[in-house]
Structures are given as structure tokens and as C-alpha cells.
Specification:
8-stranded parallel beta sheet, 2 domains, 8 strands, alpha/beta, TIM Barrel
Length: about 425
């Protein structure tokens, strides 16, 4: 038996803090009519099916609850055979096998799996998957999809202020004025709206601020004076602005978000690396672009997401150089286990262990979280098994490090 296989049972028994999810409320999930495809084709595996050649029209067909299930199966299986090698698909397959007893996807097994999912789609689904089967203590939940999921005190919200930051036109400002019933004439008014939103959300157990603007623009946020931001805003309001002025205003407002995070003692979670879906500018999301924002906000705690994939070295350099930068591995483990194993070891070589956050499922649907975490535990076993084999630590130290990354470090960062 390999060293990693000896570690795995201990790691499987560890309780985990989940740093990042997009889940809908359980009541929304269980009150919807579902089938296997409407649930699972909402995230990740669907991107690989499209990458393998599935048309968007066929994907829309799979996602439509009104379409015939047998026809869905016939569209799905040929592409699945081309795609099931990826870890997005492996995570899905592992979850369906463990949670619903489906060992592989076939014409005969998919209808049976579909019925099992429908039967399980009742109140208590989330507790069963997250607590009973995954041993997750709580999830940090990104306010991106629905209202806070109802499940005791299990979901800790992370608040996005991106709609306030990402201003590209007068229409964007008009929309904010309507939403908050305020006239916006100065950058200070936009900061005031940020404060209103944060204060409003604090009683719900607000745990972090979050930005995902690497999907929309470069992560380079330059230092901008209040006067420069005011001029840019004035020009936008008059519909007489240069393209560079929207970036000027956005850069200023992101610095404001970073300051708000510090003032409210909240970490700021930032999407870096690969963007979900098909087609985007990966160069926009290189974590190295955040250097100016980090340097100018030394008291703000930055949690940089997704292992920075494929920029693992750049991410490590930031976490090594700056005391206020944390490296978050959410999503990373199902992007590539080989990348994950490699960089867990490289990061343990370069970054203080208390800066590493080990798991976040980053899923819309609950079953995906289970599949991701199963692979995550294997990745940690493999990575730390290698360190033991190389004489870098013993088993006791290896398990201590894994526990730090999966539980202790996020517990300390989020102060929950």
C-alpha cells in the first residue's frame, strides 16, 4: 500500500471548512422539478462537454426540464465518452456513484439514477450531503446566485460589491440610483452605498467580501486619487468619457472595497485564474496583477482564489511576500489533481502553512461539492504522502498540515 493510501482514511475523517460555494437555497432546489441533467449540467462538466464539441443548442436541450429524458440521454452519452477523462466529469461521476449508487453512466443506469435523484430531492438533502456524508462544518457562501440558503447557521455569507465597482456607463449609475434611491454625483456617494450594503448584511453573519471581476476586466487596479475618480465620474454622468475613465473609476472603487474590508474586519476574497465556462481572457486574471492593490492595503486580508490556476507560482510569490495574502484552493482540485498535488507541495515549500486554505467546492449544485471534496482529500493524501516518502515530514506532521489547511486556517481567517 502506498503512503498516500495510509494517510487517506485519516484525511477522510477530518472535518472541513468550505471557503466558497454558490449554492441555491435548499427550499428552492427541493421545490423545483428536476432531473439528472437540469441539476448537473448547471456547472463545470457542462463546460467540458461544450469544449468536446456539444452544441449550445444541445446543452440547452439537456437543461430544459420539459424535454424528453430518453432523448437527453442519447445526446449526452456520445459526448460524455469523449469527456469523462476530465476531473470535472470525474467529480460528477464520483458523486453520483457514492450518493446515488450509479457506478457508470449508461442508457440503462441514467434513468435509474434520475429516479434516485428525484426521490432524494426533499428537505434535509443539504444536511445529508454536507454534514452527514462530507463532514463539512460550514460553508462560506457567495451572494451571487440566490438569497442565503436556509440551513441552521451552516452558510456564512460573503458579500459582493461588484455592481457598485463595475461602472461602465451612465446607465450603470442610473441603475444604482434606482436600486438605492440615492442621487450619485460623487465617488463619496458610491462609498456611502457600499457602507449601507455592508451594514445591512452584517446581521446575517457576514463573513467576507468577494469580487469576481476577473471575468469582466483585468485584475490590475492602479492607485487613483479621489479627484481623478471624481473627474472620471463626472464625465461618465455627462456621457462624455474616454474608455480609460471607466477603469479609473473602477480602480478607485476597488481600493475603497479593500479599505471597507479592513474597517469591517472582513477578508476580501478575489477570483484569480481560470474563469468558469467557455471562452474568456485568462491574462485578465493573473494574480500578479493585484500587487498594487495589495501593497497599498497592507492591513486588508486578501484570500486569492482557485490556486491561481494556471498561475500557481505567481500566487505563491504573493502569499510568500505579503503577510496579508492567503492562498485559497477552492475549485482548484477538480480543475486538475496533478496541478493540485504539485502545487500543494510547492506551496508548502514556499509559503507559511497558516496562509493556505485547502477546500472550497465552488458549486451551484450540492452533489458537486461532495465530488470535489472527495477528490480534494485524495489530492492532499497524495501530496503529503510524497513529502513523507521524501523524508520532509512524518505522518503526524503531514496530518497536522492537512488539518491546518482544511480546517484551522479558514477557521482563523473567517473568525467563525
Amino acid at each position: 500500500m502506498g503512503t498516500w493510501k495510509k494517510l487517506l482514511p485519516e484525511i477522510e475523517n477530518m472535518q472541513v471548512i468550505d471557503t466558497h460555494e454558490h449554492l441555491m437555497p435548499e427550499t428552492t432546489r427541493v421545490n423545483e422539478e428536476i432531473d439528472f441533467f437540469t441539476v448537473t449540467m448547471s456547472h463545470y462538466a457542462s463546460s467540458d462537454l461544450i469544449s468536446a464539441g456539444m452544441s449550445q443548442a444541445d446543452m440547452d436541450f439537456l437543461r430544459n426540464i420539459k424535454e424528453d429524458f430518453t432523448q437527453k440521454v442519447s445526446k449526452f452519452l456520445p459526448i460524455w465518452e469523449k469527456t469523462k477523462n476530465t476531473t470535472y466529469c470525474r467529480a460528477l461521476a464520483e458523486a453520483m456513484k457514492d450518493l446515488y449508487g450509479c457506478p457508470e453512466f449508461t442508457e440503462n443506469s441514467l434513468p435509474e439514477l434520475n429516479e434516485a435523484m428525484k426521490k432524494a430531492n426533499t428537505a434535509g438533502l443539504y444536511k445529508d450531503i454536507f454534514v452527514n456524508k462530507s463532514n463539512i462544518k460550514y460553508c462560506v457562501w457567495d451572494q451571487w446566485y440566490y438569497d442565503v440558503p436556509e440551513f441552521d447557521d451552516f452558510f456564512k455569507p460573503a458579500l459582493r460589491l461588484d455592481d457598485i465597482v463595475y461602472i461602465n456607463s451612465k446607465d450603470d449609475i442610473t441603475a444604482l440610483e434606482k436600486k438605492f434611491d440615492k442621487s450619485i454625483e460623487t465617488p463619496a456617494m458610491l462609498q456611502e452605498i457600499m457602507e449601507i450594503v455592508i451594514t445591512k448584511n452584517k446581521p446575517s453573519g457576514l463573513t467576507a467580501l468577494k469580487t469576481g471581476l476577473a471575468y469582466n476586466r483585468s485584475l490590475h487596479y492602479g492607485r487613483v486619487t479621489q479627484n481623478e475618480a471624481a473627474v472620471a465620474l463626472e464625465h461618465i454622468l455627462k456621457n462624455r468619457f474616454k474608455d480609460t475613465e471607466t477603469k479609473t473609476l473602477q480602480d478607485y472603487l476597488m481600493f475603497c472595497v479593500a479599505q471597507k474590508a479592513y474597517w469591517h474586519a472582513l477578508p476580501l476574497q478575489i477570483h484569480t485564474g481560470i474563469q468558469e465556462g467557455n471562452g474568456n481572457y485568462i491574462t485578465n486574471s493573473n494574480p500578479a496583477l493585484l500587487a498594487e492593490l495589495i501593497i497599498q492595503n497592507p492591513n486588508t486580508r486578501f484570500a486569492l482564489f482557485h490556486g491561481g490556476y494556471p498561475y500557481g507560482g505567481e500566487l505563491a510569490t504573493l502569499a510568500k511576500n505579503f503577510p496579508n495574502v492567503y492562498l485559497d484552493m477552492c475549485w482548484m482540485h477538480i480543475i486538475s489533481p496533478s496541478y493540485s498535488v504539485r502545487y500543494i507541495n510547492e506551496w508548502l515549500d514556499t509559503v507559511p502553512a497558516n496562509k493556505l486554505l485547502g477546500f472550497g467546492g465552488d458549486y451551484i449544485f450540492a452533489e458537486g461539492v461532495y465530488g470535489n471534496l472527495k477528490i480534494t482529500r485524495e489530492n492532499f493524501a497524495r501530496a503529503l504522502g510524497m513529502r513523507i516518502d521524501e523524508g520532509l515530514c512524518d505522518e503526524k506532521e503531514a496530518l497536522r498540515l492537512v488539518k491546518m489547511m482544511l480546517y484551522d486556517n479558514p477557521s482563523e481567517l473567517f473568525s467563525v
